[in-house]
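Exercise 4. Each item below gives a protein and its sequence. For each, produce the structure-token representation.

Item: Carbohydrate kinase PfkB domain-containing protein (Arabis alpina).
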Amino acid sequence: MLCFTHLSPLPLFSFSRRQLTSFSFRTSLSSSSIDSVSPPPENCIVLGCGGIAVDFLATVDSYPQPDDKIRSTCLKVRGGGNAGNALTCASRLGLNARLISKVANDSQGKGILEELESDGVDTSFLVVSKDGNTPFTYIIVDKQTKTRTCIHTPGDPPMVPTDLPQSSMLSALDRANIVYFDVRLHETALVIAKEASRKKIPILVDAEKKRDGLDDLLQLADYVVCTAKFPQAWTEESSTPGALVSMLLRLPKLKFVIVTLGEEGCLMLERAPKDASESKETDVESLLETLKHRTDSTTTFPTCVLSETTKLKANGIGTVSGRLFLGTAEKIPPEELVDTTGAGDAFIGAVLYAICTGMPPEKMLPFAAQVAACKCRALGARTGLPHRTDRRLIPFLV
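Answer:
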């Protein structure tokens, strides 16, 4: 769930105002109009490889106990899967989205293709098996706790690299501005990632949790977006800021890493293009605490606070030159919060758009948080995904 959390306005550490910058993008409908939104970017292509599925979403008053028999209050069947969701989001925002994945030649697979195509996602590179089953997920949405529980059944037979002819892969990569992987279909993903890297096409990896093939993909990644628990789990460091420093040290190609923090927003560490050798070292833990106390607790809109480029030190780990960003998320009224399924995918779809269009990080993080918040106001991973003409996005797209 993405929403705003209260933070004390009093700083605990002595960093000058010059070292910190704050950005807020308020969705003022009176000062902005749809007519002022910039046209969609021309020929911006994002290629994604990963999971698609059918989601069976059952809303219940409260999550069942073992051996309970309960009734759902609402049932909807929608398209899902991380890659399918993120690319649908990117397409609605104005990118040309292409997807590599696999479905079966069954009613669910046909439904997935139709839904993706209706949202402008290019499905010509999808593999359709004659037999087997399309992936599907049972999702239980708890109205009381505003949480969701997912039970996934993978597709069969699984996708393997030989399913995708070399000519199809090269066509999919042709003129692509960025390639995105959700780390499912990892064998196929690695073949595509190596070719993308050879062609110098930027790569974004969604590091949701440790998976087969993840480490190989991370070595090729230019950008990583990960869940709250991932940095510490992958690096075995004791804190998130220290783990982010460790990730940049271990992955020399990485330009930035974003960790989504649920209702606390997100944290991003960006590598400086040049070494900040003249800057004095700054403890990354202390800097994060200062950023937290510089956020604006009076606004419900997404905001971003960032440091200047400096040498960020993590004790016992090392030092990297870069900037630390702290993004907040929208404070969604409880009566408007419906379902958090796919919020992270929406965030990634917006990040893909931001990278392709050259949006600066201090604008990208609130933008991605706003897109995710829009999604959370409807049931299912895609129902609430906004189009670029959505009034709530106008301040970011003018």
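Check: The radius of gyration is 21 Å.
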